[in-house]
Amino acid sequence: MTNTGALWQNWARSESVRPARVERPTSVAAVQRAVIAAAKSGMPIKAVGSGHSFSGIAVAPGVLLDLADLSGIVGVDTATGRVTLAAGTRLHRIRGLLTPYGLALANMGDVDRQTISGATSTGTHGTGSAFGGLVTQIVGLTLVTGDGELLHVSETENAEIFPAARLGLGALGILVDVTIQCVPDFLLHAVEQAEPLGEVLDTFDERSRAADHFEFYWFPHTEKALTKTNTRLDPAAGRAPLAPVSRWIDDELLANGVFGALCTIGAVLPQSVPTINRVAERFMARREYTDASTRIFVSRRAVRFHEMEYALPIAAIPAAVREVRELIQRSGWRISFPIEVRSAAADDVWLSTAHGRETGYIAVHRFYREKPAEYFTAVEAIMRSHDGRPHWGKMHTRDAESLRETYPHFDDFVAVRDRLDPERRFTNRYLERVLGR
Ligand SMILES: Cc1cc2nc3c(=O)[nH]c(=O)nc-3n(C[C@H](O)[C@H](O)[C@H](O)COP(=O)(O)OP(=O)(O)OC[C@H]3O[C@@H](n4cnc5c(N)ncnc54)[C@H](O)[C@@H]3O)c2cc1C
C-alpha cells in the first residue's frame, strides 16, 4: 500500500513531518523492493514504529515504511526459549503470543504501545539492577541493508556487527525480524508506597540491588517519593490482583483522568502546581498485589508529555537528583510531572546507555502544552556533569562530538554504519546530529 501527503506526528506531538511517500509492505521482499526503489529515486527511507520517541529519531521526510503488516511470531525454538518476532510487532501483543509457550519477556518499560524494532532501536529499558534493557534480550536479527540485501546478525552470524546492530538507532538498515531470548513466564509481586525522598535517595543503590525491580517517582515541590518494589514469583504462587474498581480508580481515574485535568490547570495557573503536587502526594496510598508481569511492568499513559532521560553511573543518582531538586527550588519553576528514577545492569551493546557500567536513570517530564526547553537544558547540564548519556528516543541536545566522549565504541558503530549504509539512505536530521553525516 502506498500513500502520500499525510501528516505524521509522534505521540508527544513534539515532531511532525509530511513524508514524500508512505509504504506499508506486507512481506520481507516488499521491504527490500522499497529500499531499492527509494535508492533509485534518491530518497531517504526510514522504518517507523509507533512514534513513541520524543526525539526526532523517527522522522522520515522521504519514504516512511510502516511495518504494521509485518507482525507476529516468525518462529519459536521451544528448547531454548528463543522467539523470532516480525519487526512491526507491538509490545502489547507479545504477551498473548508468548503465553501458549509458557514464555515472557524478561523485563519491560513503562508502556507497551511501541514496536519491538522501535523500542530496541532506541534502547528502551525498564528497571532492575540485575536486568538489562530490551536490547540485551536480543540474540539475533535480520536487517535489510542500504543495497537491499538481507543480513542475518547474531553472536555466530556476522558477529562483528552484533554489538552495533542490537541498538542501531534505525541507522544501519530496516529490521525485518528480531529474535528474543525469552524467560519462563512469571508473576510480579508489587509493593507501592510513599516514603521520604531523602531516605529513598540515601538507600537507592542498596535497594536497587536488593529488589528484582525497584524504582521511584518524586513529585517536585513535595518531600515524598512513590517507591515501587517488584519481586519475581513463580506462576504457582498465584495471582492476587487489584480489584478492577480500585485499579480503575488508581490507574485510570487518578493517574490519567484527574492527573490530566490537574496538568491542564497547572499549565494555565502555574502557581497552583505545588499545591496540586502536595494533594497528589496524599493520594499515594500503599498498594500490594501480585499479577502477570506485563500488568505490573506496564501502565497506560493517557496524559501527553515531553520527556528527557539520562543514564548515569548508578552511584551518581542520589547526588544528581538532589541537584535537580535544588535547581527547581532555585528557579521558581512549577513542575507538575514527577521525576522517575530507575536502574539497569551494565551491558556490552555499543550504543546502549548502560554500556560498560551499572546504570541509574533519571527522567524529567513536562506536560506537552508547557515549554520544556529551559527546564530540560538546565537538568541536562547536571546530567552531563555526571557523565550522563541521553536516551536516544527522548529529548536532548547532544551531538556526535559530545556523544563520542561517553561511548567507547562510538567510532566502531560509525564504521558499521559506513559499511551497511555508505550512502546514508536511512539517515535523517537527528541521526546527522548524533552520529554525523
Ligand atoms: C508514554 C511513553 C512511555 C515510554 N516509556 C519508556 C520506558 O519506560 N522506557 C524507555 O526506555 N523508553 C520509554 N519510552 C520511549 C520509547 O520506548 C522509545 O522512544 C521507543 O523507541 C518507541 O518505539 P516506537 O515503536 O514508537 O519507535 P519509533 O519512535 O517510531 O522509532 C524509533 C526508532 O526506531 C527505528 N525503527 C522503528 N522500526 C524500525 C525497523 N523496523 N527497522 C529499523 N529501525 C526501526 C525508527 O527509525 C527510529 O529510529 C516511552 C515513550 C512514551 C511516549
Question: Can you put this structure into words, describing what you see?
Answer:
The chain is of the alpha+beta class and 437 residues long. The chain contains 14 helices and 21 strands. The protein has helices spanning 28-40, 91-98, 116-121, 162-165, 197-202, 204-210, 244-268, 273-282, 293-297, 317-331, 373-385, 400-406, 410-420, 429-435, and strands at residues 2-3, 8-9, 16-17, 21-23, 45-48, 63-66, 73-77, 82-86, 103-104, 138-144, 150-154, 174-181, 183-184, 187-196, 213-218, 224-233, 287-292, 305-313, 339-344, 359-367, 389-390. The strands form 5 sheets. It has an 8-stranded antiparallel sheet with strand order 17-14-16-15-19-20-18-21. Helix 10 (317-331) packs antiparallel against helix 11. The longest helix has 25 residues, at 244-268. The radius of gyration is 21 Å and the shape is globular. The mean pLDDT is 94. Flavin-adenine dinucleotide is lined by residues 11-12, 46-53, 57-58, 67, 87, 109-111, 114-115, 117-119, 121-122, 124-125, 169-170, 174-175, 301, 391, 393.
